[in-house]
Amino acid sequence: MSADPRRERLDELLADRALVGLVPAEEAELARLVSETNADERGELELAAAALDLALAPARAELPATLRARLDGAARRFRAPVSALAPRPVHPLAPRGRLASFAGWVVAAAAGLLAFLAWRAHAPAAPAPAELRAELLASAETLRRDWSATELAAGASGDVAWSQARQAGVVRIKDLAANDPTREQYQLWIFDDAQQYPIDGGVFDVRGGEVLIPIDAKLHVEKPKLFAVTREKPGGVVVSDKQRIVLVASL
Predict the structure, then answer these.
(1) Domains by residue range for the chain, with CATH
(2) Of 8, 104, 222, 246, which is least packed with CB atoms within 10 Å of its CB?
(3) Does pLDDT of 134 surpass 70?
(4) Residue 83 pLDDT level (bands cut at 50, 70, 90)
């Protein structure tokens, strides 16, 4: 069944009004089409255009790649054909040939952006390391092991708390030598029987005293058997030299 040309023309006018505005003749045409089709005209496209403008501002937050891909797919499915549109006057502010084809992208992108911003605004903040450690240690499921220091970290101590169910943990380290972040950083590793190579658990800095570091495992941990801390170049490495290990905790 072919699409209703009036509905297509109405969608295009609504998109044009949101993006570039309408001349008086087009405003009258829009009012007539709204009346003829009993359309629900509530300004969603104006809201979408405003949200898209916010998204394209210099100080915007980037959408996650997975969400962006979903939005692109939604836009392609939403986009209506424009070949059947009747000739129309050209708006003096901007070329109009491609506006209708962008309407679906605008709506999909703006809707996704609004959903993302709403999620971010209401998402609970990550607990502080001390709070997370207390939560983990309150659970019987959590594993806790003390560090053993190598000769590279004589006098250092602390422990590891790890929840396999939550895939979360906290490293507590005391009296490890302070590092200069411009020259080197400490890096956590998780040795997993299900992985050929240790899993990167994140890089961190130490300024002396006691520090609590949330574990940032880059892969899902299946069968952890050992945690280790190495001293690496700034930003960490993909594969470490075991000669650089400063702390070890076996499970």
Answers:
(1) 5-122 (no CATH), 129-250 (2.60.40)
(2) 222
(3) yes
(4) very low
